[in-house]
Amino acid sequence: MQIIFVHNSIIGTVLSDNSLPYFSNNPYFCRRNKTDRYEPFINRILEDMGNHYGTVVVPARPRHPRDKSGVEGSVRLVYMRVFAELRNEMFRSLEELNAAAADKMRKHNQKRMQKNPYTREERFLAVDRPNLKSLPPPY
User: Fold this and answer.
1) What is the model's pTM?
2) 32, burial (CB in 10 Å: exposed 0-12, middle 13-18, buried 19+)
3) pLDDT, tens digit, for every residue of 108-125?
4) pLDDT value, residue 34
5) What are the angstrom distances between the C-alpha of 21 and each of 1, 27, 67, 92?
6) Which of 41, 53, 67, 113 would bridge with 60, disulfide CB 3.0–4.6 Å?
7) How far, in Å, CA of 96 to CA of 101, rounded?
């Protein structure tokens, strides 16, 4: 969810993986209050976050990896192309690690994709960026 603050904007729909705490150290922060096969619920805090930012929060169903397969594939690709390349380097601080990861991520986003004639960055600027909404002022 940190991407929201990097670009100072938000997308219209957020798919929530209920196993990760996004805005708190509490591991139960984004979990459902009640599990239902057909009508999943999200807790009040995550719903308030969606209302504040003007976005829809859709909870992923438990034990349904197809709901988040696109995200999982992207995470795998970034891990292979960014963090796997940094595994043999030594960093003295978190800032050094973050700078190296950001540089590798920038190079990854500017590399042409195999099946498409454009880069990820070009696609983001042409398709995704125009559809982002600016963030509202804080509470």
Assistant:
1) 0.64
2) middle
3) 989 998 888 999 889 988
4) 55
5) 10, 5, 18, 27
6) 67
7) 9
